Every structure is written in structure tokens, then in C-alpha cells.
Amino acid sequence: MPNSEKITLGFMSSYRDKTTKILTREVLYGWAESKEAERAMANIELNNDPEQKNRLKRETLPVAIFAAQCTEGGARPTKATHPKSTGLCIHDFDHMEENVSDFYLRVVHPMREEISLVFAHISPRGEGMRLVTELAPGESIRQCQARIAEKIGLQADKSVHDITRLSFIPSRKYFLYANDAKLFDREIEMEKDVENEVVAEQPIEVEGVANHDGGSETPVTNQPANTENPIGQILTKELAKSMQYQGVPYSRIIEEILARFATGGKPKEGERNNDLYALVRELRTLTQFNFQSTYLLVAPYFDGLGDSEIRATVNSAINSTGGRTISPSLQAIIRDLKSENASQSNDFRLPQITVMPKIMRKLVNCYPQKQREAAVITLLSMLGVYSTRVRARYIDNSLHSTTFISHVVAEFGSGKGFMTDLKNKVLHRLEREDERTRERLEEMRMANMNAANKGEDMKRGPRFAPRFLGDDTTVVTLYKYLEALEGVHPIVYSEEIVQLIQNAKGQYGNLKGFYLKGFDNARMTHETASQDTPNYVIPEACINFCTSSTFKNTTKFFTLEDGMASRVAFSTFPTNLTDPIPVYQTLTKAVARQLDECISNLIAEGNGQKVEYKLPKVSKAIQEFINQANATYEDGGDEAYRKFANRSAVIGFRAGLLAYLLEGHKETKSVIEFAIQVANYVREVQYMLFGDTWNEESGNYDISTRTGANKTLLSELPDHFTRRDVSLIYMQQGRSSSGLRMAIKRWRDKGHIREDENGVFHKLKSLSEV
To answer: Quick one: which of 159, 533, 679, 680 has the fewest CB in 10 Å?
Structure first.
């Protein structure tokens, strides 16, 4: 290749674009590291339909042209235009059986010089690997592909055989290797250039981008080499920002750990080894004692140490004895950071619901992406209210109906109004029927008033009632309506739960009791000896509730002590003040007709009689979901996660029943997947909102009876101490003060301490008895 010849790579903004632009470093990494790329890849990753994956890939990802020279604003090269070669060749390996990252590190990376590797990434669908290499002198593309395929032992896609082939560009975390000099500066032949080479190391087993076999990929960065610490060639602190543990970036966790013992949150001069050792001791439980994962995360925070010294210290800390579970101080850090995330409704990563009945997809597609899970959960209550007579046998052999408590958690002005839009689309039929019902009720009320004025006996009440109930419905009215409905589901709707809070108590009890009984499909009774007050007996209460509120009001109304929080299908979405207010679309005539047909079918289920369905495949999947949660707990997970899994499994099972009805009584793969995705999503939001509270109240975070460094928290206190003494130890151990009251209460309840009139606590038992 002549030294004076300028080789230019090209790209197009989409698969259908016909005009090329010059692909530069800034363009490639600017796209790959953008939020837009992250969102596009997330949509592709979470879609299980291969055809949909391909469609999303073509619609949302730009394409690069590596093998043919392009010009700025030029026409897309084709065979007919006889484009010039760039000296590069594309290799496509699809449907790999081994984890793509593992295969690359094991096979391809060691021979990168031998095969003249320039660029490598995981395919956008997560199932294969794309390589870009240099052609050998006089070598054709077919010859190069055959040579590389033989070298690495894989069968290449034979359709990739011409220089005009397009290559989709994924997000940065899919990159495996990039030699920038050979990729962008091709006016001369290049020798191996370490400074411009970046490579993804061993995958980190944390919340990342899962490929087809459950592995995770690690992003690479385009940073200059660090002569003191070679790790500067492959990553910076950006890695710790991009990877998360239970929705919390590792960078925040690392910074908080360092802040506990390092000056200003930074390793102290002369004590970097000690600080690194202490950091790894805390962090290793999260990275599952994996050396490479831990090393990649912590090394950028210790620039002053040589690479060999970092590796030795990390290895020593990981393999040191003791501490196989998350320490109380780290639990506190994660709990506080998660609470911060939840209260701000920000970047807490939640699973998505990508598989759903066709009619539900048509109803939610018009909403912004961030609201779609909330719309799906809300639809459970709204559509479930129509299948009044349907029941299904759960894995514990109990019968369940399609009753749901759905609640959206979002801040003011974030878009909770989509609920009213959905209500107008889905519940208008109930509202129309209720207009006539309320007229009849008013006629009955007036007739009773006239009878009372004449001294005649009044009728107790009609055997009919409205089914769409507002947030001002009182408890006594609910009793009366439920008895009149005789098992037909009503729905209580409130866009702001503060309205329900104001009506939470009434003559016959607390409104929360109706939530509980309604969810459990349980018997509801109220008996009174008063001659003026009627007795009510509802053999099976089935009430759907649909509400929303801010985080603060949510945690005020739904509590763990009465079992409420674990029965609610919570959903949430972040507040983004830069987003425009959504304009919801009206349904097309075709979709409106399909929706009406689905509702009619739900109403007709059982022809007025109760009907029971068996869902063996859904039940089996739900059982596996619970088993997985139990296995996670046995492996060291916290108990709250398991507890919420049990109740969210019920919600998922009911969602599967509803999907089964909507899909024409077919227990399809999509019905099963929908049930699991709903259960998983609901579990994660329940845990996000109430997991830490449950752990604290149940004593999971109380270390008064746990040993640490051969001492318990109580043993570190003097024989006579105050709350301030406990608080100081909490601070020293990095624990949140929110658990202090609970710790003291448990010590007192178990007879370990007593409190005198001056607020001083006195130990009553020796440490061996604690």
C-alpha cells in the first residue's frame, strides 16, 4: 500500500441510509459511549424474538464499512461502483456455543498479532463475534476469511465475502479489542502499536449485558497507556461507573468504602497497600472472589502503585481467610446507596417486561419507553377486573382470581397521568354501565327516603352495585357494594393515593383490610349487634386496586407490618424533567375493536358461572422462579429478596392466567415468559422499595448476635452505655443509624440489657450468653 495513500473508513447513520460519512475515532467512540447506543442495545438485548431483534438492529444501529474506502457525503459503495479496498477484512462468526468474551480471551487475543487483528466486538444480538483483520499482501477476502477461520477453529459466515459488506456498530460494552492506529491511521503500514491498543479482559460477573449463555461482557476504554500502571491501557474508573451491583454503580460503592478509612476518600500516601487490601476485603464478596473482576475494578484507584504490587495485594486480600459473606458495613453502604436511588427514582436498573399479550403490547406501545413496564402492571388491574368468574389452581393448590393491586411510584410531574389515559381506554365500558347503575341506586335511595317519611319499612338495598369505584368510596359503601355484586370484581381507582389515605378509616374499619382481603380472595365479614346497622358477609372478596403516588406517600401507605407491601404489584419510572409531556395516542379503530373483543371474551368467561383452569406450564415456571430465589438465599443472599419472591410469584402466576385468557386459552411460551417477567419485575421493585426495611425489622442487619473480628457489637460497648455510645460504634463500622433503634430493642427484648430512668443501658448477661 503506498505510504501517501489516505485510507478512509465510512459509516452510515442507519442500515437504510445511502450517504456515507467518514468514520473517525471521535465518531466511533462518541456513538458507542452514548446513552442512545446504550438504550438501543438494551432494547435488542431484552427482546426474545429473533425477528424483532433484527428489526431493532436495522432501525436503531449505525453501520460501518470497514473493507471499502468511503468519502464524506459520498454514495454508499456497491459492487457496481468498484470501490477501493482499505486493506481490511470482516469475519462474522454466528451462534457460538461458548461465551463470546471467554472464547475471545482464550483463543483470539493471544494470536492477535499473528492474524493482524484490528477490531473485535460481540455481535449486537449477543450470539456471535465480529472480527476485522488486515489482509495479507495479495490476499483476497475469501482467502483471508478461510485462513482466519482455520486459525481460530470456527466456521465463518460465508455470505460476508465482498468489500461493501456493512457492519452494525454496537455500544461500547460490546467491544472486545480495538487498535486505533491500524483502524483509523492507515496511510502507512503499521507495526504493533501498544499505545493504541485496548482490550476487554475477563468478564466481570456482575449486572452487565448478558449474552446468550448468561455471561457478561466488560467494556473497553480508549485511554492512553499509563507507564507506571499498565492497566491504564485497558480501563479507567469508567468501568466501575458502568458496572452495577443491585442497581448501584461499583464506583459509588468503592468511593464509599474508601471514604471510611482513606483521607478524603482517597488512598493515603504511604498506606496505599493497606487501603487496597482493606478495599478488596470488602469488595470481594460482591465480585464472588474473582481475582480478575476485582483487579479491574480497584486498580484505577491506586495509580501510585506498580501493577505487580497491585496484583499481589489483590490476590492476597481475596485469598485471605474469613469474611465469606457481605460485611455489615458494606451492607449499610449498599442499603444507603440503594435508598438514595429509590428515593430519587433515578438510575436503579430494573428488569424489563418485553413479552406480553398482543393486545397489551398495542396498548402500551404509544407510551415512552420508561413508562411501559408501569403501563403493563397497571393493565393487570384494569383487564383483570373483567375476568370475574375465572380461577386457576396455584402451586399450593389454592384458587386464585385475576385480582391485582397495582401501584405506580413516581414523582410529581413525571407522567403518572398515563394511568388516566389507560383508564379511559380500558375501563370506559365499566364507566358506561355504571352510569345506569348509579341512576338506579339514586332511584332506590329516593324511594327509601319517601318510605321513611311515610313511616313505611325501607328496603335494605338493591342486589346490584357499580363496579368502577373512585377514591372517595368509604368502607361502609364498599361492604354494601361487595355484597350486592356477589363475587363480581369491582375496581378502586385513584391516581393519587393521598385521596385514599384520607378515606382509609371508616365506620367499619380500615380500608387497608379491603386491600388485603381483596388480594387474598378471602372471606370478608362484619357483624354488629346494632339493629340499625346491617351485617355483611362476603364469601370471597375480589377487588382490583389501581393507584399511584410519590415515593414518600407510597411508603407511608403501604407497610410491611400488615403484609401490604408484599402484595402490591409496584412499578416505577424515573423523573426526567427534560422530557416533554407525553401526548397519548387515541386507539385506531382496528385496535379499539380488538380491545373490545378481548374485553367481551373476558366477560363471557364461564357464562356467569365460576370456571377453573389449570396452568401446569406456568405453575412449573413459577415454581422454578421460587426455587431460584431460595437457592440465591442459600448462597448468601438476604432473606428479604426470597420473601418478596414468594409473593411476587403469586402476582406473576395471576398475570400468566390473564395472558392465557387474552391469548385464546393457549399456554404458549410467551404466556409463560410474561408470567415470569412480571414476577421478576414486581419482585425487584418490591425489594427496591422495602427490602432494606424488611431486613432491618427482621434483624437481618442486626449484628448484635453476629461475630465480627471475634467480637459482637454489644461486646464492644461498656457495661453501662447510652444511645450515643451505640451510635458512635455504628459510625465507626460504617452502618446506617436507621438500624440503631432496632438493635437496642432486640437486646432489650432478649434480656441482654435494661434501661434505667436516666436513659443509661446496663448489660445483664455475659457475652457467652448473648
So the answer is: 159
Which residue from 162, 188, 298 is spatially nearest to 243, judged by alpha carbons? Answer: 298
Please report the pLDDT score of residue 117 as a whole number: 92
Asked if 297 and 255 touch (Cβ cutoff 8 Å), the reply is no
Cβ–Cβ under 8 Å, residues 553 and 501: yes
Q: Nine-digit cell at 222?
A: 480508549
In the predicted model, is pLDDT for residue 226 greater than 50? no
CA distances 685 to 408, 523, 567, Å, are 10, 29, 12
| Closest of 287, 66, 64, 37 to residue 174, by C-alpha | 37
Gap between the Cα atoms of 766 and 754, Å rounded = 14
H helices of 491-581, in order, are 497-502, 511-520, 551-557
Measured in whole angstroms, how far is the alpha carbon of residue 184 from the centre of its chain? 38
Q: In the prediction, which pLDDT does 187 show?
A: 63
| Chain centroid, CA 226 distance in Å | 36
87-104, pLDDT tens digit by residue? 899 998 888 878 888 888
Which amino acid appears at position 424 of this protein? N
Pairing relation of β-strands 10-12 and 544-549? unpaired
Q: Facing residues of 198 across strands? A: 178
Amino acid, single-letter form, for residue 364: V
DSSP string across 119-145: EEEE-TTSS-EEEEEEPPTT--HHHHH
Cα separation, 243 vs 286, whole angstroms: 12
Tell me if 267 sits within 8 A of 276, measured CB to CB.
Answer: yes
Report how far apart, in Å, the C-alpha atoms of 589 and of each of 367, 379, 586, 687 are: 18, 20, 9, 40
The region, left, alpha or beta by phi > 0 then psi within -120 to 50, assigned to residue 312 is alpha
